[in-house]
Amino acid sequence: MSLRLQAAQVAWLNTKLTLDFIAASRTWIDEDLISALLTAGVVDANVRGADDEGATRDSSIGAGILPNALRRPVNAISIAMSLGVPRESARTKLAGLVERGVLVRTDGGFVLRAEVSQSKPFKSAMEAFLLATVEFVDGLAILNACGARDGDRVVTPVWPVAGLATRLMTAHVLKGIQHARSLKPEISLTTHYVLLWLSHLTGSALRVVQEPDAGRLGPLNPPFGPVSVIEVAKAARMDDETVRRHLGQLEKAGLVIRVAGKRDINLPDQTLVANWLDFQSRTILGTQQLVRKLYVAGVIVDRPSETIRLF
């Protein structure tokens, strides 16, 4: 396998991870994309891992293991700016999250309320993201990529390291989102989200290389080719007209083209492809760093021969 193809496959796995992360975050923030990502940034700063031997799902889910006073506050406005959320929009969203009791505002910034991190919706979102993490690590192991070896897996049961795993994965995802935004900072976060879904649904990360082949990712059934507006809207959990408007903006920016009534990433644009290949190279470096951290933290271990229960 060429290094370029492996970089494309790792980029595809990262895109899937990011979309799974956003989907999990939105489920407990009333499907609000911006509020979900702002809250994720706060959790990234607040959450701590639980590594005691007797930890369980309820006691070790993550941020809830620390009282409010012991968590590290975060300047959420800085997070908002790094994500490209306008300052006033961020203030409004954050005020709403405080009013709803999701966040607590302190002199040093925002923290996730301890009671929230023990709630059923939050735990369900965490479980979904942990499952996405398992799929991500399994994919890297299949590829023998970024330091993950064939047969490696996420430790089971996962709950004793759930908080730490989530913190590392959240930081990785948010860093990727911030870097992707830096390539086209004039495009809004929501428009980037639509672009991310389009690139995933069209398999564009795999198609930018000269050997467009799913290869070892075949069992994950990555899609290839143009898709309809309705398909993007359904996947993104947004209404058709909103998605159509964002795709129109991306088309004007030269990032998206129409193919037989459907939409696709503008792969004929060699400048765009060159930027994408550079992004994939950066992604593989970031993923290598993540895998090292997951190994050190005991989140990734060798897979034993027997069948194991994840949770």
Concise synopsis of the structure shown:
By secondary structure, this protein is mostly helical. It has helices at residues 3-27, 33-46, 76-83, 87-99, 120-143, 162-183, 189-201, 204-207, 229-236, 240-252, 270-296; strands spanning 103-106, 109-112, 152-154, 256-259, 262-265, 300-302. A hairpin with a 2-residue loop joins β4 and β5 (262-265).
Count of individual domains: 1
What share of the residues does DSSP label as strand, in percent?
Answer: 5-15%
Strand-pairing-aware structural class: mainly alpha
- The end-to-end distance, rounded to whole angstroms, is 34 Å
Give the oligomeric state of the chains in this entry, treating copies of one chain as homo and distinct chains as hetero.
single chain
Number of E-type strands: 6
The H/E string reads: HHHHEEHEHHHHHEEHE
- What is the averaged pLDDT score? 84
- Strand adjacency order, main sheet: 1-2
Sheet with the most strands?
A: 2 strands, antiparallel
Radius of gyration: 19 Å
Shape category? globular
Number of helices: 11
Q: Which keywords apply here?
A:
disordered C terminus, two-stranded antiparallel sheet, 11 helices, two-stranded antiparallel ribbon, globular, mainly alpha, 311 residues, single chain
Structural account:
This protein has one domain. The chain contains eleven helices and six strands. The C terminus is likely disordered. A two-stranded antiparallel sheet has the order 1-2. Strands 3-6 form a two-stranded antiparallel sheet. 45% of the residues are buried. It is globular, with a radius of gyration of 19 Å. Helix 2 packs across helix 4 and helix 5 crosses helix 6. Helix content is 55%, strand content 7%. It is mainly alpha-helical and 311 residues long.
